[in-house]
Amino acid sequence: MAGLLSSTAMLSPAQAAELIQNGGFESQGVDAYDITGWQVAEQGVAGSVLAQSGTVTEFTASTTVGAYAGNYYGLLDNYGLASNVLYQSFSTAAVSQATLSFQMFINNQNASTDIDAAGLDYSVDATDHPNQHVRVDVLKAGADPFSVNSADVLQTLYLGGANGNLTANNYINYQFDLSSSLASGGSFVLRFATVANQNALQLGIDNVSLQSVSAVPEADTNALMLAGLGIIAAVIRRRYS
Question: Which residues share a beta bridge with 172?
Fold first, then answer.
């Protein structure tokens, strides 16, 4: 009978699961370039990625609003002529629902936001091809962290520049439905990226959370499972009658 009860438990509603590690950047408790749960990719000579506390950035000494919650936040700090990526790989079974949320600010010390066809390549000619922007994407597993190819990018969540004045902007809350992108399950990458060939640019993120709900079995699958449980129960009754 215990086996029957455990099988019946399989039909209970699926629970939400958190797919992102250290989304609040608090794990280490110190400013750190090696961020628990996250990976970093840097190109160029004037940028850095770290988990940071306080309101003055370590690399460019720029002013920010600081952490949204707790003491630390993820920071991509470009002085110019650099591309930086903060990303995390994650895996999931098939899902019926997936919701990504985070808080983000963007400080752009350049007078304009420039999105060049070169994507995250900071090295294009800065006069003829200004390239100064931020992007947030879901990538296929194994994609180059700087890739903007459609074959690698499953869903683009943000593409643009400063969300306010040039410096010390407040956080904005973002929420995205990733259910379609993650529906079949698999391995993926969440990417936050900056590119700057004009002037300083800071991207700050905090409270990154990706909540998923496992796919609910189809009605036919449930019917088959119940039929199987009925056969098991009949066998048990016959054995002990």
Answer: 104
